[in-house]
């Protein structure tokens, strides 16, 4: 067993998938977003469980992620929305050959596909107000017409992404929603069927059932993290844990770790954990991290090193020994949200932290 692990609770993934599915408007399909290796939970493993528990389709970022997911055995629709039109190359060809659908976020992308002259299922990504990627409104007519008139392209629908879905009452959401609805009308008036259109991510799926359309694209919530304040019956799926490698005494005046930023003011004990910034634990978490050992929290002290951190055991009243498991975040320990607040970031980023020598373990 690895000394440093991300334990993934597949029962939690199953539960969350069913819980989100149960909230969808009648007839709305669930696209499970498993980009970035399933938000760092392992795309192949979580996708298999999501597929069994209600996911109707999968969303990834890159074409290569799409091909890998297909190779892992997923036989439901897969949409990949991040690829380069300059040189679509092997990654795009392979993805299309394995039946991965491509998101088309600009007219340049669409023209590149037309030039490739190979059959492709596409979903047009439209700019509705996020101003990151998407076909600008001025090009909607041209894009719809070109897609319609290219016989080897099959348009499954349109999609767009909300910039402020985590602020459900912000008028920007309604503005984007209105633009999206208008785009569907225009596309259909030009003769496209547009059977599967989607706008909502996790926060919008949970807070705006009126915007569900034919499909929602949900990532964060399926991994058990809350996209919004509130209770949504989600179970966190990831636990990041390390085994104590040594316990040693500390005398008053002893300085700990680089720069001696911590100096002991009394007799005590410390534990060393085999995790550092090379494994994704930010150096900026110094003094903000509390690890949980056998249900009790202990303060991390001194600088976070490349491979190690030191934890203050006090008098070590609970006899922590080498080999004990210390949880950095997860159920029963610092939550992902607590960790994110301490670091000044969001839960999405915290889930993506564990790397380096972290090994995944499935339960
Ligand atoms: C285009 C797109 N759709 C859907 C999602 C899923 O978002 P969430 O994790 O909030 O559900 C993402 C993730 O950022 C995305 O980039």
From TrEMBL:
One GO CC term, this protein: cytosol
An annotated GO BP? D-alanine biosynthetic process
> Catalysed reaction(s)?
L-alanine = D-alanine
| Residues with PTM N6-(pyridoxal phosphate)lysine | 35
Q: Which CDD domains does the UniProt record give?
A: PLPDE_III_AR
Enzyme Commission code: 5.1.1.1
The protein's matches in Pfam families, at most eight in alphabetical order, are given as:
Ala_racemase_C (PF00842), Ala_racemase_N (PF01168)
Active-site positions, per UniProt? 35, 258
Give the cofactors, semicolon-separated.
Answer: pyridoxal 5'-phosphate
Q: In which pathway does it act?
A: Amino-acid biosynthesis; D-alanine biosynthesis; D-alanine from L-alanine: step 1/1
Q: Name one GO molecular function term.
A: pyridoxal phosphate binding
Keywords in alphabetical order, please. Answer: Isomerase, Pyridoxal phosphate
User: Which residues does the UniProt record annotate as the domain Alanine racemase C-terminal?
Assistant: 237-363
Q: Where does substrate bind?
A: 132, 306
What job does this protein perform? Answer: Catalyzes the interconversion of L-alanine and D-alanine. May also act on other amino acids.
What name appears for this protein in its UniProt entry? Alanine racemase
Q: What organism does this protein naturally occur in?
A: Corynebacterium doosanense CAU 212 = DSM 45436
């Amino acid at each position: 067993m690895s000394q440093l692990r991300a334990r993934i609770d597949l029962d939690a993934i199953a539960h969350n998938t069913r819980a989100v599915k149960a909230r969808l408007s009648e007839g709305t399909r669930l696209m499970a977003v498993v980009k970035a290796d399933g938000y760092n939970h392992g795309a192949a493993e979580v996708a298999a469980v999501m597929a069994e528990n209600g996911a109707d389709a999968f969303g990834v970022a890159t074409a290569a992620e799409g091909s890998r997911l297909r190779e892992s055995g997923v036989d439901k629709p897969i949409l990949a929305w991040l690829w380069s039109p300059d040189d679509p190359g092997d990654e795009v060809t392979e993805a299309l050959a394995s039946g991965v659908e491509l998101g088309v976020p600009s007219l340049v992308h669409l023209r590149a596909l037309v030039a490739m002259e190979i059959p492709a299922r596409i979903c047009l990504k439209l700019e509705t107000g996020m101003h990151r990627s998407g076909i600008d409104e001025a090009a909607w007519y041209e894009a719809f017409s070109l897609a319609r008139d290219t016989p080897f392209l099959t348009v499954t629908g349109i999609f767009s992404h909300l910039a402020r879905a985590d602020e459900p009452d912000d008028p920007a959401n309604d503005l984007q929603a209105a633009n999206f609805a208008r785009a569907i009308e225009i596309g259909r008036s030009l003769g496209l069927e547009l059977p599967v259109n989607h706008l909502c991510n996790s926060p919008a799926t949970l807070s705006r059932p009126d915007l569900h359309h034919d499909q929602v694209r949900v990532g964060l919530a399926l991994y058990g993290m809350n996209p919004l304040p509130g209770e949504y019956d989600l179970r966190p799926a990831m636990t990041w844990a390390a085994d104590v490698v040594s316990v040693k005494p500390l005398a008053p005046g002893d300085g700990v770790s680089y720069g001696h930023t911590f100096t002991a003011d009394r007799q005590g004990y410390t534990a060393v954990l085999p995790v550092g910034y090379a494994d994704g634990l930010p150096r900026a978490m110094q003094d903000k991290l509390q690890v949980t050992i056998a249900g009790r929290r202990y303060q991390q002290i001194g600088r976070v090193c490349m491979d190690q951190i030191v934890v203050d055991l006090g008098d070590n009243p609970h006899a922590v020994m080498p080999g004990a498991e210390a949880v950095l975040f997860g159920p029963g320990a610092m939550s992902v949200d607590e960790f994110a607040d301490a670091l000044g970031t969001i839960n999405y980023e915290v889930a993506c932290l564990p790397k380096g020598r972290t090994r995944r373990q499935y339960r």
